[in-house]
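sry for the spam today, last one i promise. struct tokens for design, 132 residues
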């Protein structure tokens, strides 16, 4: 399980998701805003992406489910990114969210690389089955 490069990429995405979740909670404690509902939706997005990354790591033997979880996670991370950019300009606290935006972009990158390596692994297994 831990000797594959896609597992390493998934582990990095979990680590970055947890850091972004921690930074978001840290920023929330430092400042008081009027956008309670928007902040809670963003927190829910971050928690969902963190849980999906963990689920994807745990399904290391079921590669199709892992690819599905990664694609769903990339989609939710992209929606979170659009959500942050739109509402941070609207509520004018973009500078605080800049670090979280960079972390979300790196999470998307690692999830994409993980999907690429998983698909390559699936193709290798299929070619070995054809040789038999």
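last one done:
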């Amino acid at each position: 399980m831990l000797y594959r490069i896609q597992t390493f990429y998934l582990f990095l995405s979990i680590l970055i998701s947890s850091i972004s979740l921690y930074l978001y909670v840290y920023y929330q404690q430092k400042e008081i805003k009027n956008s309670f509902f928007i902040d809670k939706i963003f927190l829910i997005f971050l928690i969902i992406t963190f849980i999906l990354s963990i689920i994807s790591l745990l399904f290391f033997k079921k590669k199709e489910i892992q690819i599905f979880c990664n694609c769903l996670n990339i989609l939710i991370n992209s929606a979170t990114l659009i959500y942050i950019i739109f509402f941070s300009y609207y509520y004018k606290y973009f500078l605080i969210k800049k670090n979280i935006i960079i972390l979300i972009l790196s999470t998307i990158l690692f999830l994409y690389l993980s999907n690429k390596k998983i698909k390559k692994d699936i193709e290798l297994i299929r070619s070995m089955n054809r040789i038999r």
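DSSP finds four helices and no strands in the chain. ok im logging off now
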